[in-house]
Write a structure and sequence with these properties.
Largest sheet: none
Low-confidence stretches: none
Strand content: under 5%
Main location: membrane
Distance between the termini: 17 Å
Transmembrane segments: 28-46, 58-79, 85-103, 110-134, 140-160, 172-195, 201-218, 230-249, 255-272
Order of helices and strands: HHHHHHHHHHHHH
Radius of gyration: 18 Å
Protein name: EamA domain-containing protein
Domain EamA: 1-125, 141-272
Number of strands: 0
Membrane topology: Multi-pass membrane protein
Length: 278
């Protein structure tokens, strides 16, 4: 899950940079094409059929995950990165609730405490304009996109948790990849296509690599930890995104951001300690 946090934080940075040049669904299409090629090659090398065992849950995970990622990409292109991250990171709350409903997992008090402490830290780090009085109002469609992505992510993470009993991580990622590719193709190819030039190519490749690495970490982590615990650890992505923003985008560092980062790291350590002991 720590590897997933690193991968997804770099993905978010890459998407934010790329969205200044490319339509969101073109980024989704290129990312999905890269991930499909990588997963097919890995499955062939391992001699494993890409069809998997639990076809229904694999398809559900693919659909929910692909739509969630696409909506998040769209939201990043329409919202300030801090606002988008804050809304998206309500996903662990939905994950814990969905896992309790669908898988019968118990909502442990320590996980709930860690989740809400982390969310408080996210708010301080991201400083959403709705709470901290930014000049421009939030884009309504952007809020709807990222909010929907958070809910759908809760379902997708729960399906990954269920699939640990039947299917390999690379098979799970393969379904996410090809379903995302098929879903993005009509929008990317039927809309305004922007050909990459120069440094656009390594940027798009980096988004694909970071997303793939994040999905591998997420899939393996969700197979070994309860859904609520695993997704709570994922909050560390916010701190990493905060670091990339300061180093790459030259975002200012202030006391509220440092306090929020401290809250996130502390809550993650709290949840990890509980996971190791129980």
């Amino acid at each position: 899950m720590l590897g997933a946090a690193l991968g997804f934080s770099l993905m978010g940075l890459g998407v934010k940079l790329a969205s200044a040049t490319f339509p969101a669904m073109q980024i989704v299409f290129v990312r999905s094409a890269f991930m499909t090629a990588v997963t097919v090659a890995a499955l062939r090398h391992a001699g494993v059929s890409p069809l998997g065992v639990d076809h229904r849950t694999l398809a559900l995970r693919g659909v929910f995950g692909a739509v969630a990622l696409s909506l998040f990409y769209i939201g990043i292109s329409r919202l300030p990165l801090g606002d988008a991250v804050t809304i998206q990171y309500t996903a662990p709350v939905w994950t814990g609730l969905v896992a309790a409903l669908l898988l019968g997992e118990r909502l442990r008090p320590i996980v709930l405490l860690g989740t809400f402490l982390s969310l408080a830290g996210v708010v301080l780090v991201a400083k959403p304009s709705a709470l901290f009085g930014a000049d421009a109002a939030l884009d309504g469609w952007g809020v709807a996109a990222v909010g929907s992505a958070a809910v759908l992510s809760g379902f997708a993470y729960t399906f990954v948790r269920k699939l640990r009993q039947t299917d390999r991580p690379m098979t799970i990622i393969f379904y996410l990849s090809w379903i995302g590719l098929a879903g993005a193709a009509p929008f990317a190819l039927g809309g305004t296509w922007v050909w990459p030039t120069g440094w656009d190519w390594p940027l798009l490749l980096g988004i694909g690599l970071a997303t793939h690495a994040g999905q591998v970490g997420l899939t393996k982590g969700m197979a070994r930890l309860e859904a609520g615990t695993a997704s709570s650890i994922g909050y560390l992505q916010v701190v990493l995104a905060f670091v990339w923003g300061a180093l790459v985008l030259h975002d200012p560092i202030d006391g509220l951001s440092l306090l929020g980062a401290t809250l996130v790291v502390s809550s993650v350590l709290l949840v990890v300690r509980r996971a190791r002991s129980g």
